[in-house]
Amino acid sequence: MSETLERWGSKRAFILAVTGAAVGLGNIWRFPYVAGENGGAAFLLIYVAFVLLLGIPVMMAEILIGRAGRRGPMQALSALAAEAGASPRWRWLGLFGAFTVFCILSFYSVVSGWSIEFLVASVNGNFNGASAAEIGAGFDAFLANPGLLIFNHSLFLFMTMTVVAAGVAKGLERLNNLLMPLLYLLLLLLAGYAATTDGFAPALAWLFLPSFEALTPAVVVHAMGHAFFTLAVGACALMAYGAYMPEEQSLPKAAVAVAVLDISVALLAGIAIFSVVFAQGMDPTDGPGLMFVTLPIAFSELPWGSVWLSVFFLLLLLATWTSAINLAEPMVATLQGLGLRRSISTAIVAISVWLIGLLSAFSFSTLAEFRPLFGRNVFELVSSIPPDVFLPLGGLLIAIFAAWVMPRDRVVSALGVGESCYLVWRNIIRWVSIPLTFIVLLAGLL
């Protein structure tokens, strides 16, 4: 089996890369409002449990396929399926994963462009002294301006694909080594600032003192789905990174480290956000608008609010940037596996994602009335169906392939652990993770 030529330069580089793929809008934008809508601490408790039982085992399955194949997702799946005497159709899972990431990145780039606009606005002090009505109206006007949305979408995608084009060592690894520590530093600064506000104690209570009356089947399903979404599993992105994984690295230790880092980002972001929200007596259940409407209102009334709001949107931009870079890599790797040069592969991905992203950008203005499916516009479709349906379906197939199809010795070797640890992982993924992933998929379809 032909192997990829590049490798991550160290164990730390691999962990930062996978964390970079996982940490993004799911942690800083989606987690706070989903937690707010689903009971705070009750949601958090179930979410962490499902990260352990669902997220980590499936993450390990995805990475080990790439590590065993040492090629792009399609090529690794094809070679490993042939080795196991299984259907060659398994290779199409790699293409499905690339399509899933393609859809996600098309709306991800648009939303991440919002963070550029809001960072500039907060640095300029545009929210200082503005009323809640003015901030809300400003956000609506921004969404209704297709030219501005397209400019920010284009700028963000250019920032992303420039790094991807540089390759694993010169591009992804170098930027991850720089930006991931900076991201955590900014998070700690924000959490430290949150500790000085009157909302800090209520925020801690909201996040860490569960009311079990809030536990409903809907909360459990949301927590299960978010555990899946936030770790970036199911789209073969981590499979591409497994192909670059150092030989001597323990996969279980790396997966646990990524999960801890991922959860810590969500917790620190939640503490910072809810402290500010509670300090101003605002509602933590404001939904997706929590980030771009509620927070500017809350920060505008606090001492040094514009400075800390700027830090927050810088943090959001860095998180989405590293995540987008690491999500784009598997698409480029898939095209490279078909024989295209990296520069050509990157250009094809960039242009394609940019074009489809225009549909999401126009969904708030020109195409606002175009609702092709389920009464939803294009942005609502691509921001819900790929994360809620495609990711669980991809994750289910990845788990089945790793746990039931791959040769046992290849799995043990790729995990980098002994026989007893392999048996623990196999039993968990076969009898716990796969059924839970199926439930997540059903919930996304209903």
TrEMBL record:
Keywords: Membrane, Symport, Transmembrane, Transmembrane helix, Transport. CDD domains: SLC6sbd_Tyt1-Like. PANTHER family: TRANSPORTER. It is a multi-pass membrane protein. It is found in: Membrane. Its main location: membrane. SUPFAM superfamilies: SNF-like (SSF161070). The chain crosses the membrane at residues 12-29, 41-65, 92-111, 149-169, 181-209, 221-244, 256-282, 302-324, 344-364, 389-407, 428-445. It comes from the Bacteria. It comes from Vreelandella neptunia. InterPro entries: Na/ntran_symport, SNS_sf, YocR/YhdH-like. This is Transporter. The keyword Transmembrane applies. Belongs to the sodium:neurotransmitter symporter (SNF) (TC 2.A.22) family.
